[in-house]
Amino acid sequence: MNRRIGLIVFLWAIVNQILAQSPTQAVKTSLQNQKDATTLRIVFAGDIMGHDSQIAAARVESTNSYDYTDCFKYLKPFLQETDIAVGNLEVTHGGPPYKGYPQFSSPDELTDALLDAGFNIMVNANNHALDRGKEGLERTREVLDKKGMILTGSFVSSGQKELSYPLILEKNGILLAMLNYTYGTNSLVADTPNIINYIDTLLIRQDIQKANLVSPDFIIACVHWGKEYQREENSTQQSIARFLFSQGVDAIIGSHPHVVQPIRYEEQGSLYKQPVVYSLGNFISNQRNRYRNGGIIFAMELEKTDSTRIRDLDYLPVYVHKPEANGKVSFLLVPCGISDAMMEKIGFSEKEKAIYLEFCDDTWNHLSDTPRNSYYQTLD
């Protein structure tokens, strides 16, 4: 069965019809597909990059096509056990010529592989959203829409944004509002009528007020911010986080620095409150320096009774492994915590095994106050 069945996305045209007929308190009940389930697991992956070497690795010469499926094969079981999986799409699908840094355009098959792995939402308000200009932004939206991947953060027009933002989702009887903003777009400006969501407190306040019209159970803000390659958050990030929480956001997920930054949250007994993941780091890329050669998948399990709370949270470090066979390099995402036997099966040399273990130890030590995910500790 397709895991995405049952994830409902609401367009504001429908929401407004319900609002016109129902008191605000009744809107949420009207929107929800009532089910016995009262929990929802949602995961977030970091920067999905598309450097030149990644494009070359995915090339299938015999069919004149591209295939990224193997990149995610070791994470597929983990991702498909969650209800919602979100990634930061930091490339465009601007069409050929395909190119990596500094202005990314990746083959459409990248999204095919992300869907196959279990992702169902991409956030796109980031500094590379305009890499291929108006045509790139619009084609990216068109490709993801046709393939069935939900995209938010960038919009073809104000009308499209008005209809689909904030992103309102329902799964397992829990109603979510998802927001997405970026600090900038590398000095590129969106051509009319295209729109990118920038970090603007007035805009954010208005968006949250609009989201609150449907009385969401939980509000999540995905924010592209911070300074590249810095392992600690800065004062600007802290200030923005305080503002978001003051406006009613329940959780903040950060991206952009390309390294893992701290996770902060409050503990209330066995529950968690106001988590902020300052940076997830890279999900898949060709950045090979220490701290940049991987990232984390952050997970929250929401529980709804009379209110909706975070019952559990954890993270899984993921390393980018680059084996070479018959003169061709591959990109394989490998979770931390696997056995020596699995490392050997995957094809780690002694040198890369040491780098992989260094990445895992660096990440575990950096996030020592946050529970680790143990999904892969018995994999062999």
Topology readout:
Layout: E1 8-10, H1 12-21, H2 24-31, E2 39-48, H3 52-58, E3 59-60, E4 65-66, H4 76-79, E5 84-89, H5 109-117, E6 121-123, H6 133-147, E7 150-152, E8 154-155, H7 158-164, E9 167-171, E10 174-182, E11 195-196, H8 201-211, E12 218-224, H9 235-246, E13 251-255, E14 263-268, E15 271-277, E16 282-284, E17 294-304, E18 308-321, E19 324-325, E20 328-329, E21 332-335, H10 340-346, H11 350-366
Parallel strand pairs: 2-5, 2-16, 5-6, 6-7, 10-12, 12-13, 13-15
Antiparallel strand pairs: 1-9, 2-17, 3-4, 8-11, 9-10, 14-15, 17-18, 18-21, 19-20
Describe the structure.
With 380 residues, the chain is α/β, with parallel strands linked by helices. It has a single domain, classed as 4-Layer Sandwich (Purple Acid Phosphatase, chain A, domain 2). It is 28% helix and 28% strand. The chain has 11 helices and 21 strands. Strands 2, 5, 6, 7, 16, 17, 18 and 21 form an 8-stranded mixed sheet that branches. It has a 7-stranded mixed sheet with strand order 1-9-10-12-13-15-14. A hairpin with a 2-residue loop joins strand 19 and strand 20 (328-329). The protein is globular. The protein starts with 7 loop residues before the first strand and ends in a 14-residue tail after the last helix.
